[in-house]
Design a protein that fits this description.
The complex is a heterodimer of chains A (295) and B (378).
Chain A (H helix, E strand, L loop, with lengths): L9 E5 L4 H13 L2 E6 L7 E2 L2 E4 L2 H7 L5 E4 L6 H10 L4 E4 L6 H13 L3 E3 L5 E4 L3 E4 L8 E8 L2 H13 L4 E6 L10 H10 L5 E7 L4 H10 L7 E6 L23 H10 L3 E2 L6 H13 L1
Parallel strand pairs in A: 1-2, 1-5, 2-4, 5-6, 6-7, 10-11, 10-12, 12-13, 13-14
Antiparallel strand pairs in A: 3-4, 8-9, 8-11
Helix pairs in contact in A: 3-4, 7-8
Chain B lengths: L4 H10 L7 E4 L5 H8 L5 E6 L11 E4 L2 H12 L10 E6 L5 E10 L4 E7 L6 H7 L5 E4 L8 H10 L4 H20 L2 E12 L2 E4 L3 E4 L8 H5 L11 H8 L4 E3 L4 E5 L2 H13 L6 E3 L7 H13 L5 E8 L4 H14 L6 E7 L2 H10 L4 E2 L2 H10 L1
Parallel strand pairs in B: 12-14, 14-15, 15-16
Antiparallel strand pairs in B: 1-4, 2-3, 2-4, 5-6, 5-8, 6-7, 8-9, 8-10, 11-13
Classes of the chains: A alpha/beta (295), B alpha+beta (378).
């Protein structure tokens, strides 16, 4: 039944009284996400869109023991603190929307989360959605529909664009995960692939990568080793990006010759992945992959 | 934020590293007087201070044997652009006699989510060249971010690149200082290349530090203390764009690009390229842009001389089509540039946006491929 989030997901919103936190709490509630509590230090006792607000994660959990997921809208200088607070309170899935967190901070809290058995999504990500069940993120809900194709992506808007195309072509999604555009993120492509390999709902996967780092190459190696057996369609953004220049996302940079478009595409093709030249070819390739799987 | 060599060396000096004796020469300084005042004895090395890599090969580093020669070389370097960039300052250092040049850097390994030390006995070349020509010479050590770099680990790295005796200990201490700087400045990169062995000591002949932009709010002093104007990290228009808060990257083509979201903007550039066009830039208005920001971005590209025409590709998730349309219409109304403009609008409030644009005589495409073909053909 999909991965990471579903109908059993009970969400805590950290930074719920801020502009973004409050707006997206409303959006998530309208989508049907079960948001049971929010945290803003100093605002305990108030309410946001009917959701009770607490001063700390511990207090929120004491009164709402069903919480199993947290989504963080706290500004960058304070976001790492919010992540540690969630992990220390025992929450096992922490979605970090915040953009601009120093990479040394992220490096530490991602390692800390691992040692405590918690999964971090992000930072600098749109979150994740299991269409029709739960949206823990900032993506527009109406562009998704339930189905059997997983989408995992380093880019927000490109995820929306491609998912919406799939939806219009009648191809629904099992779970869509925006893993984030920073140099270090919690859940990586390979870790996402492991989850989707085990998920019976998922029949194919769309991987949306971009230049910088080697996450796409690692995913390709995993597919090549036979550890991910479902068909994969990939699109990599940044073919025309020059080296040593940061393309918007902190992580989208070719540094010291590593993380090029060509390297990623070659690795993926070698692993038998269908690589789309443009995002608009993705639905066609997904259809092709699904048909081949059936025959 | 990239630091200049002289800034990086000043930081290393603060941490107790024996960097070569030097003076910093700013525009208008009397080079001979400064050298004498500091008591610097030739031979000297005169080095162009720019933030672009490949300075040595571009002729930005010269060895001189006399003060007179230093003066004439300095005059020459002031006028010599390195990859199109004139130096912001010159660094004149005492030459360090040495036989061996090493390579050492610390970066963050993104997938391992740890700092990694990269070291090689073959310094002087950049790491890409070393990886190509002497791949087996590269020693990698991953550091636990909670424990830090221990002395024995630093010595192990030194041993593996062939050091022994007092030089080994000197190298290990230097490496630990590099790691301290790496964490204290929250750097993306600390590099010394070449790192010379001079007698029993290691001496960084060059040093490079890149500080994570996201951590700059904790390192204001780096910007405040800066003595020279930043040159080479960004082009003139990139500096202008950043000044207005626009994430703008200059490219070589003639089609100005605006997208919402980094991934979609990159994909838009790629799509333009795919259909035979050449993007002039990357400009991302991000998610949820209001009309004011859209207006600012469009006006910026209408002014940007490299962009002969402008392509705006917006997929509205959180971004609203009507806000985007309002911004475009206002920018076009106020501009005298008369550049061709192609708009593709889809998603939230698409119809409202389309109407605003059409009322102002701007057609909005729905299909991005059609829109790209149009802009390329103009």
């Amino acid at each position: 039944m999909a991965v990471l989030v579903g109908s059993e997901t009970k969400v805590l919103v950290q930074g719920i009284t801020g502009r973004e936190g409050s707006f997206h709490t409303k959006q998530m509630l309208e989508y049907g996400t079960k948001i049971v509590a929010g945290v803003t230090p100093g605002k305990g006792g108030s309410e946001v869109h009917g959701v009770p607000v607490y001063d700390s994660v511990k207090e929120a959990l004491a009164e709402n023991p069903g919480i199993n997921t947290s989504i963080i809208f706290v500004p960058a200088p304070f976001a790492p603190d919010a992540v540690y607070e969630a992990i220390d309170a025992g929450i096992k899935l922490v979605v970090v929307i915040t953009e601009g967190i120093p990479v040394h901070d992220t490096m530490r809290f991602v390692n800390y989360a691992k040692s405590k058995g918690a999964t971090i999504i992000g930072p600098n990500c749109p979150g994740l959605i299991t269409p029709g069940q739960s949206k823990v993120g900032i993506m527009p809900g109406h562009i998704f529909k339930p189905g059997k194709v997983a989408v995992v992506s380093r880019s927000g808007t490109l995820t929306y664009e491609i998912s919406y195309m799939l939806t219009r072509e009648g191809i629904g999604q099992s779970t869509v995960i925006g893993i984030g555009g920073d140099p270090i993120v919690g859940l990586s492509f390979t870790e996402a692939l492991k989850l989707f390999e085990k998920d019976e709902e998922t029949e194919a996967l769309v991987l949306i990568g971009e230049i910088g780092g080697d996450m796409e190459e690692r995913a390709a190696a995993m597919i090549k080793r036979g550890e991910f057996t479902k068909p994969v369609v990939a699109y990599i953004a940044g073919r025309t990006a020059p080296p040593e220049k940061r393309m918007g996302h902190a992580g989208a940079i070719i540094m010291m010759g590593a993380g090029t478009y060509e390297g990623k595409v070659k690795a993926l093709k070698d692993a038998g992945v269908l690589v789309a030249e443009t995002p608009f070819e993705v639905p066609t390739l997904v259809k092709k992959a699904l048909e081949e799987r059936k025959s | 934020m990239k630091l200049y060599e002289f800034e990086a060396k000043e930081i290393l000096r603060m941490y107790g590293v024996g960097v070569p004796e030097s003076i910093l020469v700013l525009p208008g300084d009397d080079v001979a007087a400064k050298i004498k005042e500091a008591g610097l004895e030739p031979p000297l090395v005169v080095k162009s201070q720019v933030l672009v890599a490949g300075r040595g090969k571009a002729g930005g580093i010269k060895l001189v044997k006399t003060v007179e020669e230093a003066v004439s070389v300095a005059e020459e370097l002031w006028k010599k652009p390195i990859k199109g960039i004139l130096p912001g300052a010159l660094l004149i250092e005492k030459a360090v006699p040495h036989d061996v040049e090493l390579y050492t850097s610390i970066i963050i390994d993104r997938s391992e989510r740890r700092p990694v030390i990269l070291a090689s006995a073959f310094g002087g070349m950049d790491i890409e060249e070393i990886a190509r020509e002497k791949p087996d010479s590269i020693v990698r050590l991953y550091v636990d971010p909670f424990v830090g770099l221990r002395g024995y680990e630093a010595r192990e790295v030194g041993k593996k690149i062939g050091l022994k005796g007092k030089v080994l200990n000197s190298y290990a201490s230097f490496l630990q200082v590099m790691y301290k700087v790496f964490t204290a400045l929250e750097a993306e990169l600390v590099e010394s290349n070449p790192l010379a062995i001079s007698g029993e000591r290691v001496v960084p002949l060059d040093a490079r530090i890149i500080v994570d932009d996201n951590s700059l709010f904790r390192h204001r002093e780096l910007l405040e203390k800066r003595k020279v104007e930043q040159r080479g990290e960004f082009t003139e228009w990139e500096v202008k764009g950043r000044g207005q808060g626009l994430p703008f990257v200059e490219l070589d083509g003639d089609i100005g690009i605006i997208g919402n979201g980094a991934g979609l903007t990159m994909a838009t550039m790629d799509l333009v390229y795919h259909f035979g066009g050449r993007p002039a830039n990357f400009l991302d208005i991000g998610g949820g842009a209001r009309s004011e920001l859209v207006k600012k971005a469009v006006s910026f590209l209408l002014e940007f001389p490299k962009a002969r025409k402008v392509f705006i590709n917006v997929f509205g998730g959180i971004t609203r089509g009507d806000e985007v349309a309002k911004g475009i219409v206002e920018a076009v109304r106020e501009s005298k540039a008369g550049k061709p403009l192609v708009v593709r609008l889809s998603g939230t409030r698409e119809e409202e946006g389309r109407k605003i644009l059409e009322d102002a005589g701007i057609y909005a495409y729905k299909d991005p491929v059609e829109a790209v073909k149009k802009v390329v053909s103009l």
